[in-house]
Amino acid sequence: MSTTSTQIGTPAPTPLDGIELPLDDRRVGKVRVSYALPNGRRLFVTTDRLSAFDRIIAGVPYKGQVLNQLSMWWFQNTGDIISNHAISEPDPNVLLAVAATPLPVEVIVRGYITGVTDTALWTQYARGDRTIYGHQFPDGLSKNTALPTPIITPTTKGADGAHDEPLSSVAVVERGLVDGELWGRVEAAALALFDRGTERGAAAGLILADTKYEFGLSANGDLLLIDEVHTPDSSRWWIEESYEQRLRAGDEPESLDKEVVRRALADAGYTGEGPIPELAPEVWSATSARYIDAYERLTGAKFIPGTYPAGRRIHAALAGLEIN
What we know:
Blueprint (H helix, E strand, L loop, with lengths): L23 E5 L3 E6 L3 E6 L2 E4 L2 E5 L3 H15 L8 E6 L2 E5 L1 E3 L2 E9 L7 H6 L4 E2 L2 E2 L8 E8 L2 E2 L12 H6 L5 H24 L2 E13 L4 E4 L8 E5 H10 L9 H9 L13 H19 L10 H10 L5
Antiparallel strand pairs: 1-2, 2-3, 3-7, 4-5, 6-7, 8-14, 9-12, 9-13, 9-14, 10-11, 14-15, 14-16
Helix pairs in contact: 1-7
């Protein structure tokens, strides 16, 4: 694995698991906690929680900061493709944003056939499926190889621990999840964003294998890119330098994302049901390093770790912020 230029302290700090703020409409997601603010705004705090197989697995120090700051970088560098909800970053783990109503569909763009989860292309292909997400696939494909062109593979958003359900683009419209005209705009934006991510990744020595986008509508009906963009949580980033050699050897690509955690869980026989197995400490320290490495490669900037306890720092930052 490529080493990051930023050294992680030893012992590692206690991850930010959650936060309580004196604000209205508290909503807790897998990774983010958000609050309503006046004037059509919303405050998002990105925690260090890591999810896999639709479950919260553990906390990884600095992960929340990487997600928040890397997403902000991408929001600033994709505004020419589609508007987004980002307003400002009052703290390394905090985003002030335009309030938006999320579309009920996760938009996943895939450039490679890979993965270990139930909704992954390779999982479905390996068990014999050849029509997946409405796309036709020939026999003879190999894991971790490029598709002829990137494809969109939507899923529902699993609630209350339910797994995401694979969809076709046709089903998204036929089931009334998203209006046909709006869905067309979403697809066009998603593919353009994926092209931008692929281009920037290549310049950073990385391959964007696949990614997830979230879209929402503002109060006046504008389509916005929301949540996070091209982070190690929402994307599968592979190191280009070793990709071909590892592919020929039958090894998994070197990744700068949480795939290492998914694989460790899968190797332990865990696929989202039952008790979560305990993983070695090295898995978590390596995950922190991978997230930071991805940030530094993609942004070209050195990662500056925020102070811990992160909750104390966030409270202090928001005390001086005009949020009323």
